[in-house]
Specification:
By secondary structure, the chain is an all-alpha fold. Helices cover 58% and strands 3% of the residues.
Length: 141
């Protein structure tokens, strides 16, 4: 079965731009071309795109996906490196979650500084934001 890029996009719930980007990034192999120079995709492109999109739903980076695809393309290899990659990804997520939980707590503490309806000049949230120490701020991940 061969598909043009629009049909591949529809079947995989992906945009045409994303498919082209994945091709340029080397995540998707270059498709064959028709005599009219249209890209022609096949089932292996569909399968690979589903794999990539599933990885993205797990917040796996494109670099990590490239590595996973390299392992997937050489199935006789030992999967210890795949395990290590996922362990590193999990550790990074745990750090990010801890950062987000700290941010949530700071926001809840800030929210607790103002209840009811007051003139803004008396708003505990605004006052708290004015006196917030940047040194203790949680940086975005």
């Amino acid at each position: 079965m061969t598909l043009k890029i629009g049909e591949l996009a529809r079947q995989t719930h992906c945009t045409v731009e994303t498919i082209r980007y994945y091709e340029q990034a080397g995540l998707l192999p270059a498709p064959l071309r028709s005599s009219g120079n249209y890209r022609l995709y096949n089932d292996s492109h569909i399968e690979r795109l589903h794999f990539i999109r599933h990885c993205r739903t797990l917040d796996i980076s494109l670099e990590e996906i490239q590595t996973l695809l390299a392992y997937k393309d050489t199935p006789e290899q030992d999967c210890a490196h795949v395990n290590a990659l996922l362990d590193t990804h999990i550790d990074r997520l745990e750090t990010h979650i801890a950062t987000l939980l700290s941010l949530k707590q700071r926001l809840q503490d800030l929210r607790g500084q103002c209840s009811g309806s007051h003139p803004v000049e008396n708003c505990g949230i605004i006052q708290g934001l004015e006196h917030c120490s940047c040194e203790t701020a949680v940086s975005p991940a």
